[in-house]
Amino acid sequence: MANKPPQRAKRPCKVSSCKDFAVNGGYCDQHQERIRKKDRERGTAHQRGYDAEWDKQRLLFLDEHPLCVDHKRRGYIEMAMVVDHIIPHKGDKKLFWDKSNWQALCKSCHDRKTATEDKGSWSYQQTVIEKPVSCYVFKVGQMVHAATGYAFDSLSCKAIDQFEIKSIQDKIIEVEDADGFIHRLHHSHFKAVTA
Fold first, then answer.
1. pLDDT above 90 (res 61)
2. Counting beta carbons within 10 angstroms of the beta carbon of residue 17, is it exposed (0 to 12), middle (13 to 18) or buried (19 or more)?
3. What is the pLDDT of residues 145-171, one digit of tens each?
4. What is the 3-state secondary structure (H, E, C) of 110-171?
5. Measured between alpha carbons, how far is 139 from 166 in angstroms, rounded to an integer?
6. How distant, in Å, are the alpha carbons of 11, 35, 42, 128 from that of 31?
7. Is the pLDDT of residue 25 over 90?
8. Quick check: 122 and 142 in contact, CB under 8 A?
9. 3-state SS string over 150-162?
């Protein structure tokens, strides 16, 4: 009799009140419509701006910037496959085509960045709502703590962990985690380290 590999534990449905287990995309059979609704709201790649002109410009950019910038920062060499928008454009055409907002990343670094920054989703039908400016004024080199559940999840950190601000661009703060990965989060996710 052959040994069977252990099976993965079943995960609960993402709908908090649901008692069933997830079967596809984190949802049970009863809640699969939520996935389809998210896909409809998100729109097609073409509706989000990823058309033939984007493909042409993307290839030109990757020819000029062939290495993943996240790997390069950590002293490694990895081929870039994706042109990433440093600040997510959320449908803003001006920000979408601003080449100073582009960076070359490998697929794994891009997937990790997208998952930590905006949970990988946006809707071209949404309007972008400006958040009020935080009461904190941060500076490069300053030490900060994570201040929100989203930041704790993104940085995989504890309340006592401190991060040095590596750069600030508009309202986006860049910090480096213990593994050397760079994370870019809105300044409202941090609080200053106090003595």
1. yes
2. exposed
3. 888 777 777 788 888 889 999 998 878
4. HHHHHHHHHCCCCCCCCCCCCCCCCCCCCCCCCEEEECCHHHHHHHCCCCCCCEEEEEEECC
5. 9
6. 14, 8, 18, 27
7. no
8. no
9. HHHHHHCCCCCCC
Which DSSP helix (H) or strand (E) runs through 192? strand 190-192
> Does residue 98 contact residue 88 with C-beta atoms inside 8 Å?
no
Structure token pair of residue 185: 């989060």
Mean pLDDT score across all residues of the chain: 77
In whole angstroms, what is the distance from residue 43 CA to residue 35 CA? 13
The rounded distance, in Å, linking the Cα atoms of 181 and 74 is: 8
Q: State the Cα–Cα distance between residues 119 and 136, nearest whole angstrom.
A: 25
Single-letter amino acid code for the residue at 21: F
Distance CA 80, CA 118 (A): 21
Minimum mean pLDDT among 77-91, 119-133, 180-194: which range?
Answer: 119-133
pLDDT at 123: 44
